[in-house]
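Pipeline run #58 for the internal structure catalog. This entry was flagged by the ingest filter as a single-chain record with no existing model, so it goes straight to prediction. Upstream metadata was stripped on purpose; only the residue string is passed forward. Reviewer on rotation: M.T. Logging verbosity set to normal.
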Amino acid sequence: MQIIYNTSTIQLEDIPLDIGYASERVSISDGTEAKFSIGGQNGFTQLIITAPFIDEKLLNQLQEIDTLLSLNALGGITKALLVSTPKHVSPQMEGWLFGVDNDEEFGDYYGIRLVGDELNREFAKSLFIVSKDGAVFYNEIPKNLDDPFVLERVLPKIAAAQNCYTGKGCH
């Protein structure tokens, strides 16, 4: 997949994990010595956002997501912002986990690592919704790093992901 950044075209290193596939629970550093797990089945809907850089546009969109979730009474969601390297600094947003993929597990499994020029080994800008049963329910990878996520699609997908799994199996 080709992604545009400024005047350059960069590539994803691998094929991104697609909708319907089981997500893998991976260990992520919180930027210090502590770790947390993200992805996989954990009984909660998970909203995972990755970015090659943390700028004001991204932070504004994360705040907009929080507002939409609150207005629509969509709680009980694990929200995480993940980056590929420790050069990034946590934006310290309440209710959001911040993680660094020091072991490269997330980037390898989810297929969102970039190759080429100045953003080599960084994560693409992506959004994954993982349902309570650990399946990728929705993903979005903008073709241009300056483009925002399409929140009109995201909110209904979060609501659907929360309601689709009862924990009782299919029988």
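catalog note: The radius of gyration is 15 Å.
catalog note: The chain is about 20% helix and 25% strand.
status: ready for reviewer M.T.
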